User: Fold this.
Amino acid sequence: MSDPAPRDDAQRHIAYELERRSFRRRRMVDAACALPLLGLFLWWVPLLWQTGETDITMAEALIYIFAVWLALPIATGLLIWAIRRSSAPDRPEARL
Assistant:
């Protein structure tokens, strides 16, 4: 269908920017929802290391688990910060 009232370029640009912002925000929210599943998968990876070919020590496995445990809250914090920042671009207090 065609647009009944033709818009000028400025209105089209504003509409495009709003669509792009909302798309990015929705994808960041999707990533935040998928982050626990990613963490669960990453925590299961040491179970796959018992192939016999590689010699992974318990210390290396614990370092890996700790690194995943540390990376998940950092990634969550970054996603929350990005979502909050994109949700209110006109409010300067939300950009902190």
